Structures are given as C-alpha cells and as structure tokens.
Amino acid sequence: MRESAAIARALEEFERLPGIGPKSAQRIVFWLLNNEESAAHRLADAIREVKDLVHFCPRCFNYAEDELCAQCSNTDRDTSVICVVEEPRDIGSIERTGRFKGLYHVLGGVISPMDGIGPDELHIRELIGRLVDGSVQEVLVATNSNVEGETTAIYLSRIIKPLGVRVTRLASGIPVGSDLEFADEVTLARAIEGRLDL
Amino acid sequence: MRESAAIARALEEFERLPGIGPKSAQRIVFWLLNNEESAAHRLADAIREVKDLVHFCPRCFNYAEDELCAQCSNTDRDTSVICVVEEPRDIGSIERTGRFKGLYHVLGGVISPMDGIGPDELHIRELIGRLVDGSVQEVLVATNSNVEGETTAIYLSRIIKPLGVRVTRLASGIPVGSDLEFADEVTLARAIEGRLDL
Q1: Residue-wise pLDDT tens digits, B161-175
Q2: Which of A87, A134, A189, B125 has the most CB atoms lying inside 10 A of its own CB?
Q3: Structural domain count of chain A
Q4: Is the separation of the CB atoms in B65 and B53 below 8 Å?
Q5: Using the beta-carbon criterion (under 8 Å), do A50 and B29 form an inter-chain contact?
Q6: pTM for this predicted structure
C-alpha cells in the first residue's frame, strides 16, 4: 500500500552524509538494490566497523585502531619534531609527501572567535604537555593557510617559543605546476618574501 | 604501526558506490567518525535493511517490501491502464506528477543490441501475460526518449497492438519553463508535430 519504508529510510540516512543530495542518495540506494547482497552487507559492516574500532589516539588525537595511532606507536619516527594539524585527515596529506618523519598533534579545529572556538576548545593543553620533558625540539605548525589557521599558528608560536622549542610554519608560495598569472597577490607576496637561493 | 585498516576498508567500500570518488569517500568516512555513534549505526542498519527487506514485486517488478509493491497492492488504482517503465526509479518520477492512477510494469532495461540486451532479457513476457485476461485497455510506454527507449516502445507497440490493447507513448516537446532557443531541432519538430488546439 505504501512506498517502501526501508527505501525511504535508506535515502534519508544517505542524504544526511556530506556532499550527498537526494539524487545521489537515490542513485546509491538503487545501485545497492541492483547489486548482489554482499555489496550492501560489506558496506554496512565497514561502516559499523570503522565506527566501532576507530577511536582517538590519547596522545596526538589522530584516529587510531590500536591503543596509539600509527605514528605514535611507530618507534622509527623522529620524536624530536611534532607537526600540528587541524584535523586527522591532514595527517594523510602530509604522510603522502613522504617528507615528514616526526610525530603529529591534532588540534581538532582552529581558533575561531566567530564560531566560539577558543584555545580551550582545542587540544592545545595536551600539546604543551608533550613539550615539557624537553625531548621535542621543533613544532611545525601545519594549520590551513587562512585567517583562522594563521591566527592559531601565531597563538601557538607565542605560547610554545617561551618553552625553548623552535616553532616553524609550512611555507606559503606558488603552487607547483601553477602559473604566476593565476597566483593572487597575497600568495605572490609570500612567495617573494620566502624566496630561496638557487 | 599501520594505518587504520577499518578506515581503509570503509573508504574502499564507499568508493565503490556510484558517483563517490576518493575525496567524497574520505569526507563521508571522516564525517561518520566525527559524528555520534548512532549516526553510523543508523546508516549501516538502513543499508542492511533496504537490501534484506526489499525485493522485486512478482507482478510488475517494482521494488516491494510486502508481497506486492505499493501500486499493485493498492485496490484504488485504475487496473485498466499499465504504464511501462525502464527502471523502478521511473515509477517515483511518474507518481510525483500525481497524473497517473494506473498500474506499472518495470522492464528492467531497454532493448539494446549494442549491450546484448534483447526482448528476452526484459520483463516483456510477463507484461504480455498481464494483458491476456482483457482487463487492460491501454499500455502507456514511458521508456526514456532516446534511441533504445524509442526502439523498445516501437517493439512493444508491435506486439501489444495485435492483442487489441491501445498503446500510447509519453508526449515529446519543449520542457515546461524552457526557452525555445534552447530546444534542439528534434525536440522542436516533435513539439510541432504534437501541437495541441488552444
């Protein structure tokens, strides 16, 4: 008599996901209905599993399946440098470069007075806690290159430098492979300020 | 030591879905990880449920949760007309117009020699079976307005008309709210051929 309640519910749950509108949700649900049963069950299990098994690393607040995250539990990493990022996904971006071998610390956001997020809402106290034993010599701040990211970087440098720890920031400049004519003047100004000897 | 296997598996399963690439999958999985546990569990349950509860209506091949689908089990529908569609999702499009009160029949595709799909691969035999008792007076063919859809419509009209059943087709023409200048010549020609008295 009625439309399928199960389809309606699946559509509703998919539409909640970021970037999924009604059309995408419908396409996915019909795809699941047309595919073999195992495809839907595998997806459902993967969702349950990722939520049940993954938690925050108590040291750096990255996602972790074991007690500590992949980087914190890796004894081959350089423990003298900590890269500070906004979100766990940023760790993946940096890891893919293969150029950073230190540890990480996830803030869980950035200082944003507009959104009511101050230093106390971020994992800054825990970061300071990791610096007190003197083993960390450098904190590389890899927050995003926008107002909030810069503000957070400056805040961190002000409270960390007094502890005798070097604070660095990712370089700003022209994206590799990009033309000068497409660079905005702020980026170009940064690229000039940060020019390197060849 | 390793990256989270659960995250990798969830990413992989989401990337399998239509319209979901690596970036969207990552956005969704991180959204699930950042949200309360119930959101992920509700989604996982909805996926299992839609696949476990929904099957094909044995009469019209629409999706159904009960024995028959919503339309076939509705005794208020006009049983003298059957609208033939390619896929179950097309039924939703037609239902939303509120202009069709008859029954449906889902072909499960269209005749497409290029893809090796002939009449025997579609639910055409079952459609003919629904016409033999003489209660159906009209078959409205609502396949898509492309080569395969038109071919299928012509094929159906050739085999159904000899049974003494009227075969109709959705009108082609200018989309409502659209400008003439954007209509292609084939659509415009169809709109002229199908012109109505005012």
Answers
A1: 999 999 998 887 878
A2: A87
A3: 2
A4: yes
A5: yes
A6: 0.72
